[in-house]
């Protein structure tokens, strides 16, 4: 199989946006309808919508880039000799199955270990964030994180306090005790809000690569910092702990709070 011709990040993003466009009507066709819901090994719900969207996106990627690898939430890893696409067809499945519109489709393109292009698409809201080196956008407008530099001023988000346990819960509680405002829920939507300057800090644990990879190019290109709790770059083998901040100064202070 001949390798795909190299593409510029702008061309990769254009294809990723086409994938998100293809996923939207599928998600909306199933949203707020009776669904066949089962539980996965990690007790999170999976629906026919997740599987249908991922199967469709995989087919589009394989047709365009047959040598590329694919890592999806529902269908696992397809090895490839080129770059890797990481897909979460419905991030926030619990929101999806309860009729809450704060679910998204996440699409990432990785060059080696580095997430180069990311898309956070919110089908029910008609909103989308994109990121590639040097450029983050919300729709057609530039996206930029806030200028918050101190925990005492920070607006904090996490999907659920139930996502932390044991030592992680103690570290998380130390962190949020120092923030100005706490909000919960949103899954990937919170990262879009951070990229647009509406919140300042996010901490989570227990995420999978398909939950994280698309977020990295968006947050970084918008001026923010996103790492694991040790300050290391997020990769396909990261431990699932994520810390995203609007500025390097805020990120450093949050890391120190988590390490105390």
TrEMBL record:
Names of the cofactor(s): Mg(2+)
Pfam families documented for this protein: Inositol_P (PF00459)
InterPro entries: His_9_proposed (IPR011809), Inositol_monoP_metal-BS (IPR020583), Inositol_monoP_superfamily (IPR051090), Inositol_monophosphatase-like (IPR000760)
Keyword field: Amino-acid biosynthesis, Histidine biosynthesis, Hydrolase, Magnesium, Metal-binding
Signal sequence segment: none
Transmembrane regions: none
One MF term in the entry's GO annotations: histidinol-phosphatase activity
Annotated EC: 3.1.3.15
Catalytic activity: L-histidinol phosphate + H2O = L-histidinol + phosphate
Top-level taxon in the UniProt lineage: Bacteria
Pathway(s) per entry: Amino-acid biosynthesis; L-histidine biosynthesis; L-histidine from 5-phospho-alpha-D-ribose 1-diphosphate: step 8/9
Family in the record: Belongs to the inositol monophosphatase superfamily.
Name of the protein in its database record: Histidinol-phosphatase
């Amino acid at each position: 199989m001949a390798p795909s011709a190299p593409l510029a990040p702008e061309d990769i993003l254009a294809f990723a946006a086409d994938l998100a466009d293809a996923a939207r009507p599928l998600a909306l066709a199933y949203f707020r309808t009776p669904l066949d819901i089962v539980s996965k090994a990690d007790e999170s719900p999976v629906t026919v919508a997740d599987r249908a969207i991922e199967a469709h996106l995989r087919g589009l990627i394989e047709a365009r880039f047959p040598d590329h690898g694919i890592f999806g939430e529902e269908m696992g890893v397809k090895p490839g000799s080129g770059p890797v696409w990481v897909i979460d067809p419905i991030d926030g499945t619990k929101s999806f199955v309860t009729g809450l519109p704060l679910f998204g489709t996440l699409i990432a393109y990785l060059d080696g270990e580095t997430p180069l292009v990311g898309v956070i698409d919110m089908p029910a809201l008609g909103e989308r964030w994109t990121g590639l080196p040097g450029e983050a956008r919300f729709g057609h407008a530039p996206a930029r994180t806030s200028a918050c530099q101190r925990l005492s001023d920070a607006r904090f988000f996490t999907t659920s306090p139930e996502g932390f346990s044991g030592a992680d819960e103690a570290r998380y509680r130390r962190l949020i005790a120092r923030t100005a405002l706490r909000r919960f829920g949103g899954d990937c939507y919170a990262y879009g809000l951070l990229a647009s300057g509406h919140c300042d800090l996010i901490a989570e644990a227990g995420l999978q690569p398909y939950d994280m990879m698309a977020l990295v190019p968006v947050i970084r290109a918008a001026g923010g910092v996103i790492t694991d709790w040790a300050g290391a770059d997020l990769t396909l083998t990261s431990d699932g702990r994520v810390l995203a901040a609007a500025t390097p100064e805020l990120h450093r202070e949050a890391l120190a709070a988590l390490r105390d």
